[in-house]
Amino acid sequence: MSASGKISLSGLPRGELEALAERLLAENDALRRAIAELKAEVATLKGVKRRPKLKPSGMEQATGPAPAGTGRGGGAKAGKAERLTIDEERVVAADVPAGSRFKGYEDFLVQDLVLRPHVVRLRRERWLTPDGRTVVAPVPAGITGHFGPELRRFVPAQYHQGQVTVPRLAAQLRAIGILISKRQLVRLLNRGQDAFLAEAREVLRAGLATAGWVSVDDTGARHKHRNAVCTQLGDDRFAAFATTGSKSRLNFLEVLRAGFTDYVIDAEALAYMRQRALAGPVIARLAEHPERRFADEAAWLAHLERLGIAGLTVTPDPVRIATEGAVWGSVRAHGLLPDTVILSDDAGQFALDRHALCWVHAERLVHKLDTFTDRQHAAQQLVRALIWWFYADLKAYKRAPDRRRRHELRARFERIFRRRTGFATLDRLLARLHANKEELLLVLERPELPLHTNGSERDLRPQVVKRKISGGTRSEAGRACRDAFLGLLLTCAKLGVSFWAYLGDRLGVPGAEVPYLPDLVRMRSAPA
Question: Do 174 and 314 fall into the same domain?
Answer without folding.
Answer: no
